[in-house]
């Protein structure tokens, strides 16, 4: 009886620990995505203000390292790719296509997440 109770308690604690790890991983993934989206917004602002857009824009946002690349595409559209990387190895990539009059997003996609998990 004692052994059965011990095994049940061990399984319950293990399950709680796994759930907590999954929740933390999802939080990290969301933070990396928000940071990448912030990078796209910065490029939009630069284009709207007619500023020169660097080949690669790098910055840190709330514990996330962000790298953004923007380049002109066909018909005046701009292709922007932003990568947010968290300290624990979670990497989130977001791509957007911006139209050239108001610099609004006409196409947006989130690429599959990578992680060292």
Automatic annotation (TrEMBL):
Name of the protein this chain belongs to: Uncharacterized protein
